[in-house]
Design a protein that fits this description.
Blueprint (H helix, E strand, L loop, with lengths): L6 E6 L3 E6 L3 E7 L2 E4 L4 E5 L1 H4 L9 E4 L2 E2 L2 E2 L2 H15 L8 E6 L5 H13 L4 E6 H8 L10 E6 L4 E7 L2 E8 L3 H16 L1 E2 L2 H11 L7 E8 L5 E7 H25 L2 H9 L2 E4 L8 H9 L3 E3 L6 H9 L3 H27 L1
Parallel strand pairs: 1-9, 9-10, 11-17, 17-18
Antiparallel strand pairs: 1-2, 2-3, 4-5, 4-6, 7-8, 11-12, 12-13, 14-15, 15-16
Length: about 350
Amino acid sequence: MARFRRSVAIDLGSSEVLVYLNNKGIVLEEPSVIAIDVLTDEILAVGEEAKKLVGRTPGNIKAIKPMKDGVIADFPSTEKMLKYFLDKTISKALIKPDVLICVPSRSTQVERRAVLQASENSGAHRTYLIEEPLAAAIGAGVDITEASGDLVIDIGGGTTDIAVISAGEIIVSKSIPVAGITFDDAIKDFIRKRYGLLIGDNKAEEIKIKANSLEDNQTIEVSGRQINDGLPNKIIITLGEIHAALKASVDLIVDGVKSVLELTPPELASDIYEKHIILTGGGAYTLGLKDRLSEKFQVDVIIAEDTAKCVINGTGKALGWLDEVDKGLDDGRKAKQKELEDKEKLRRR
């Protein structure tokens, strides 16, 4: 049966929000930032425009990143941001859409309820949730219905989700608060300690991205503010220094993978070693990560195609399951109703 409601998939990340419309694909990709006037509570900018204001705003304007470690950190701001993006992608819709949102595997019931509540308050008719590693696996082209183990590592903005998937289920998973934002902070801290130079979040992200395309002998020019005299300054850093800055964070992800493999059933662990580890998410190309995982576990490591969009593409594909979910809910309601009617009949006898 065809759905008369629009179906919307949302990747509500710590760094970016991506929106996918059924039969249209990805229609929105913007930073998860909202700028608010704290005196009037007025929304001044959302997404790309708000990101430009980070670190550049006067006292009465606050640029907020409402998502932290993949979960809601500021509920009112998340609700406003989500409503803005839904209105932008489904303008003047008379019928409220059904929404499917991905969440980290480690998110608690309270955190999941917060996502559901924010979505419904933003204009959704009904909201469904899917765990990020499952969505990432689908988006990476993994046949999740096979009874065979696949290890997927999704490195997002706020969290890295590590999961072993088999027969459509997450068998073992771990979510750690080490991801793209952590890498940015590591670069900022390294430059501050080594050179006494302060740089912002956007500059650190720019260095991280640029490092992925550098040759070993190339360098990056970095500008910022000197700590000792407060004056602007420029420095030159090498690829080796960026590698050193990221090593501790990369090792935390490696430790997370190790702990997941230690809990994986032997048969599924054997499948993984015969196949490969799959990296997805915007942080998949992080300097040194792929080589470190391959070296540590002696397994081939591959980076999925269009890696930054694996989660949203997988969530979008999962929109086709909503009819089955609704059918299951309707069948459950009918069964419950029949049970109540049978009890009522027995009471009247």
